Structure formats: structure tokens, C-alpha cells
Automatic annotation (TrEMBL):
This is Lipoprotein. Keywords: Signal. Residues 1-23 form the signal peptide. Residues 111-120 have a biased composition (Basic and acidic residues). Residues 99-120 are annotated as: Disordered. It comes from Micromonospora tulbaghiae. Residues 101-110 have a biased composition (Polar residues).
Amino acid sequence: MEKRYAVAALALATLLAGCTSDASHDEQTEYLRTMAQRGAELHAVEKSRPSGSPGDAEECSDSYENIYGGLNGHDAPHVGNYDEKVALVKEGRRLFMESCMSGTPSSAQEASREPRRQNS
């Protein structure tokens, strides 16, 4: 009976360890691309509305805050520490804003950082 609990505990520990691992460089870049795409999509939505104002910086900023609401309201992948998380979210916001104002997804490739070393 105790062996079964040990196996269950080991499986749970493995699952939790996988959930807290840092996002790869590719996952971070994909997040940035997604934010740029969402900004461009918002521009298109605003453009299609009769009272919309596509490309308005204040409108884009307000929309970003309403949708993502700062560090806790986003879907950014997990990164190593708070400073890295802040930098990733800020970069995502910048790409969202540029894309929202221009109507074209900004390139996340320009903004991508050097891959971080994974702790092994």
C-alpha cells in the first residue's frame, strides 16, 4: 500500500517540476509573436467599427490594460526570475502597442533576446 503512495507522490513531484520549468527561448519568442499578432488584430477590429479609432495610442494602451492588466493578467511563459518576467512582459506590451497602432504585427525576431542558459 505504501509503495502505491510513493509512486503517486513521485508522479506528482515530476508533474510539478515540469510545470515550473523556465520557458525556452522559442516559447518566449512565440509569446512575443502572439502579442504582436493580437495588437494587429485589435487594430483590424477598431478599423471595422464605425466609431473605432484604429492606430490611436491611447486606445491601444487602454485595450492592453483591460485585456492583460499588468504582470498578473498576461499569459507570458514562466521565466527564471522577476526581472526577466518584467522584461518579457514589457517587450510583449511594446510589440502589442506597435502592432495595434500600425495594423501590422511587429517583428518579434527583432526583439528576441539571446537564449538563456537552462539550469541542468
